[in-house]
Amino acid sequence: MNYVSKKIILLPVIILFSLFLAIFSSSSNVHADDYLKNIQSKGTLVMGTSPDYPPYEFLSKGANGSQVYGADVELGQQIAKDMGVKLKVKSMSFDSLLVALQTHKVDMVISGLNKTPERAKSVDFTNSYYQSGTGLLINKSDKGKIKSYQDLKGLSAGAQVGSVQYDLIKKASKDVNVKGMENVNDLILALKSNKISAVAMDSAVADSYVSHNPGIMKISAGLHSADSNNNVAFPKGATSLVKKANQTIKQVTTNNLYVDKFIPDSIKHMSSNKKTSTASSMWQYKDFFITGIKGTMLISVVSIFFGIILGIIFALMRLSNNWLLHAIAVCYIEFIRGTPQMVQIMFVYFGLGAIVNVPALTSGIIAISINSGAYVAEIIRGGITSIAKGQSEAALSLGLSEKQAMRYIVLPQAFKNIWPALGNELVTLIKDSSIASVIGVGELMYQMRAVQADTYQGVAPIAIIMVIYFVITFTISRIMKYFEGKISHGTND
Q1: Is it true that domain 134-227 has CATH number 3.10.350.10?
Q2: Are 31-129+230-270 and 134-227 the same fold in CATH?
Q3: Span of the secretion signal (predicted)?
Q4: What angle do the packed helices 444-455 and 286-319 form, to 10 degrees?
Q5: CA angle, corner 293, sides to 287 and 299, nearest 5?
Q6: Cβ atoms 446, 461 nearer than 8 A
Q7: CATH no. of 286-492
Q8: d(Cα 387, Cα 352) in Å, to the nearest integer?
């Protein structure tokens, strides 16, 4: 291995190591006594939650589209009020909540979260504000066959990834095939389509889903855990916030506000359209899908714009005779193409976001642009290398500089050759923008989840966004095909 190859290998290692050092060192910059003071100074308390757990937290139609409601949200509002600040709610997948808390993307997490010894090592918990049980959801057709978790031997059971119920059902029996999913609506859909035989979840949440799904029922799980108390989570060392929140929780539990007020108030916002036809129900949520289309197209258009710019830059760098520029381009292209896009989105939002507070939408655009840039770079490099060297030599012989030859002779011909591939990349990017929903970006996939949560219909919203994605991508493919014909016709003339 020569000296240059060693540098190429070491460069990404050094960059990543520096990033990790910066991220982990940034998490210790806030002193415990400053947490409450900082929250009151900025005037807002950011609450992280996974809104697929009615009646604790769920998405429903509000004055400005989808809005998060629930007993946990009302508790968060009370905590914020007692701190003298306003509450801001951020939605994301359940298994991302504690990561968001550790990287200071949110100030607290209230999401039907149970305190466990493992979680307590990473975050600080308040006293319990509510105690829940565990129930099993099964299809009514299995009523006589499944009476508790003991009857699940040899069968498949589902639970939300990262939940106490997931750990409970997994530890209860080694003979049960436990399938974890991020979203509760997906679990219900899997149950109704007989992909799994049961779903383990919070008892009150199970009641909400049973009330809107006539084909399923709740039974006693026969599972008990000391970790069934719901708690509020704060960053590790945020003693001032924990103490302040505990004062609110003491007031709430003493007066039984959570059960007598917060839950009943939340139920009022839950959808009552379970008897409405599917077509009528979906039409009522057209604004959700329109908002999702706008979000998807915004992400796609901006990302492909910056992706092409990055692609041109790194393609030229990889073709450069300068070993450093070539090495940087190779590291960038190979690393981005060798890691999943979801991981990249989460790293930009949670990782780099720990250093600089980047909004979810901006993080999604940055990550998707960077990902697209790596693929576009290879497409452009292939287009440039497909042009005969005689073209560049002829341009140089006519007195053009190397930059002018590349700009006026090589690149125009290369773009003609790679136009179909660029069209495919744009179509792929539009579909991949759905991954941004994992950090709470309000594109099509996120809005589809909102409709699922509010209507308790699993398949219909999926079918609608499939059609929407097809219409968008097919239209773009036709447009790209039209311009491809124009380019070819212009060249032939």
Answers
A1: no
A2: yes
A3: 1-32
A4: 150
A5: 140
A6: no
A7: 1.10.3720.10
A8: 39
Beta strand spans in 50-197 (E): 52-53, 57-62, 65-69, 86-91, 108-109, 123-125, 130-131, 134-139, 156-160, 177-181
Per DSSP, what are the bridge partners of residue 159?
A: 180
254 DSSP β-pair partners: none
Burial of 383 by CB count in 10 Å (0-12 exposed, 13-18 middle, 19+ buried)? buried
Q: Where are the domains of the chain?
A: 31-129+230-270, 134-227, 286-492
Whether residue 45 contacts residue 107, with contact meaning beta carbons closer than 8 Å, is answered with yes
Burial of 161 from C-beta contacts in 10 A (0-12 / 13-18 / 19+): middle
- The SS3 call for residue 51 is coil
pLDDT tens track, the chain, 493 positions: 444 444 444 555 455 555 555 544 444 444 446 899 999 999 999 999 988 888 899 887 766 667 889 999 999 999 999 999 999 999 888 888 999 998 888 999 999 888 888 889 999 999 999 987 788 999 999 988 888 888 888 889 999 887 888 888 888 777 888 898 888 888 988 998 889 999 988 888 888 888 888 889 998 877 766 557 899 999 999 999 999 999 999 999 999 999 899 988 888 887 655 555 566 678 888 888 998 999 999 999 999 999 999 999 999 899 888 999 999 999 999 999 999 999 999 899 888 766 777 888 999 999 999 999 999 999 988 888 878 777 777 877 877 887 787 777 877 787 788 888 888 888 989 998 988 888 888 889 888 888 887 777 778 889 999 999 999 999 998 988 888 777 766 555 5
> Domain 31-129+230-270's class?
alpha beta
Q: What does the H/E/C string look like for 182-243?
A: CCHHHHHHHHHCCCCCEEEEEHHHHHHHHHHCCCEEEEECCCCCCCCEECCEEECCCHHHHH
SS3 letters across 288-338 = HHHHHHHHHHHHHHHHHHHHHHHHHHHHHHHHCCCHHHHHHHHHHHHHHHC
Crossing angle for the helix pair 203-212 and 184-192, to the nearest 10 degrees: 50
